[in-house]
Amino acid sequence: MRKLIPGTRSYAFGSCALLLVVAIALPPQKSPQAKSKPAAKTGAKVAAKAVDGRKAFASKCAPCHGDKGQGGAGYRKPLVGDRSVSELAKFIGKTMPPGAPCAAPEAAAVAAFVHSEFYSPLAQERNRPARVSLARLTVRQFRNAVADLVGGFQPTVPQVAERGLKAEYFKGRYFDGKNRVIQRLDPVVKFNFGTGTPTPEGFDDTGFSIVWTGSLLAPETGEYEFVVRSDHAVRFWLNGQTRPFIDAWVKSGKDEEFRGSMTLLGGRAYPVRLEFSKANQGVDDKKKPKPQLPAFIELCWKRPRLAQEPIPVRNLLPAWSPPTYVVANPFPADDRSIGYERGNSVSKAWDEATTTAALEASSYIAKNLNSLAGTNDGAGDRKDKARAYCRSFVERAFRKPLTPETQKLYIDRQFEAASTVELAVKRSVILALKSPRFLYREIGAGDGYLAASQLSFALWDTVPDPALLQAASAGQLASREQVAQQAERMVRDPRAWNKLREFLMLWLKVDEVPDLVKSAKRYPDFDDHAATDLRSSLEIFLENTAWSANADYRELILSPDVYLNGRLAKLYGASLPAGSDFQKVALDGGQRAGVLTQPYMLSRLAYLDNSSPIHRGVLVARNFLGRTLQAPPAAFAPLAPGLHPSLTTRQRVEMQTKPAACNSCHAMINPLGFSLEKFDAIGRLRDKDNGKPVDSSGSYVDRTGSAVKFAGPTELAKYLANSDEAKSAFAEKLFQHLTKQPVLAYGPKMLPGLRKEFAAGNYNIRKLMAASAVGSALRSAP
Q1: CB 464 within 8 A of CB 456
Q2: Angle at 462 between CA 498 and CA 452, to 5 degrees
Q3: CA-to-CA dists, residue 423 to 201, 358, 385, 386, angstroms
Q4: DSSP 3-state assignment of 271?
Q5: Beta 308-310 vs 222-230: how paired, if at all?
Q6: In this structure, what DSSP letter does residue 243 have?
Q7: Has residue 45 got a pLDDT over 50?
Q8: What is the Cα–Cα distance from 442 to 399, expressed in whole angstroms?
């Protein structure tokens, strides 16, 4: 009898109902009471040996339900739904059909197979035939595109090698060129002048003033809090605002910290100006000279979810950048259920967010029309120039020339109907930003304009720049060579590094920044500042390997380099002065290898006071080797060290994952994670765990059935650097991140072609990015 499960979208499993139970339950324990009752024959046989869920399903269930749960003669409904394992277990346990006994261990094995293979929503998505799907812009793409549309696609980062801010020092309180004493490049703004002056010569006791100018490079998208610390007059401008972002020029009270927050887009530079003035307070009286007061100034920030720190030199540039318009209103998060961001859902919240963003952008453009469109109030050609600006805006938003119909709808009618130029511009911009022509990515075979759009979104997450549109207009995106030439140009741009940086953080599962907290008792020097420094250390490592001249994948996996500052050097046993900035150090005598042994990675993949071989092994298996692992049927907590005080972490993990239901995945996960057991919960090298020698031996059985053993982290890294399996997984995941589509949707030759290109390019990650973008633009393998 078929019964509908209350509250679910699917049906029960009919005459072959399956009892879904937690697959990682501990083996049943015998008790005196159990001995007094004879066990059922069926249950005794099943319990005597481990059950193969796949075989059990094929023999007992497939005849009615189909070999893939698609439905059969006995039960036509497919076995799909969204109920949890425990919810289904309760219902099915009550509706087992008479004459079809199914012991709990057998039901558990079959249930685990069914749930992971075709029942769960994740399994349904995985089994769906791969195709290039119509998708809207992701949140990141929407924000970048609007910024470039408003700003006219100006360079996002000044092309200068120097870092720091341009500084000008003046005697007296005014910024008069005649009184300029010093002109130099300051790496950071962090000065304590005491009661003296910047230099012994050139200044007098009336005070001094300083102005710093240049640009600030935001590494990631999010809300930044800026802090100016000073005991004297300060003003700070950010991102081209006409009024100071922080204004403490006229001070009252004893405040010494002044704050402001702003949303910034990652990978872009923003113009900054900081003014400081120290002068004697009160009325000048030469007969009664006033004593000199101490003075200090510091420019800090709090990156999204990180601790406050002085803005480092690597994020400051002495060159000016044009202001960037930033869509700051919140958006619902994009779907990441299959490993990369996708614009595959349209909700009321998303529609409202795009509407709010369009309204705000149109108001900003209308308010700044003179500077954006080159118009002047009252000029006779103001309407014509505004119309030309709107035409360019709409064309770039739609990624192709306008037809007479679109020209009439989006521009001509708005200027004919509006009472003012500003209102016409607002209406035109809102229509464009809410149009499906802007919000949705085109798919299918197309012309050079579609190829330009595919390249731009793949490598920069934004609309095509003027060079791409010009190439499309001239018919110079028709051949593979022409498309590849543009891709090679684009991967040299800072925007491509920002796209790759986002991929690397997602690939390493550190894209989000949760609190990184460790046991104060065991690690008393590990605090929020150490956690922030560790993340910076990882970011510097990634840029110096994955974005180096060679951009070699193998260097990313094998490099022994670690970047520490003075604070981290003390924590990790390196020899650096206390106030040192980040620099490459030799750490732990060559026992580190690549990104997996970076202290931040090891700290993230650990518990409060102990390492976590499971977390480390899952990352290697899923992300580095591309293996599919079943999600744990139920949440579980690790065995507390206090329950088994004599065991090492490795021994506790082996004990907890020993049951057969666990070991199907943990036979792969554990040996990979054990290879990193030389490192503790904050990524420090150790020889002993709980007073016993650390065992960091590990192993892996690849897809061909060949087994390899590792003696520790360096041997694991060597395997990952040279494994065809790992290189293929990296190429596939990078392609999917760039295109937001599954690689199989582009045909069976795409991934093998990318692997071949990767090898031919000496495993250069930039070249792999270019090849991926070209393949997606042409819909064919390299």
Answers
A1: yes
A2: 115
A3: 58, 14, 14, 11
A4: strand
A5: unpaired
A6: S
A7: no
A8: 10
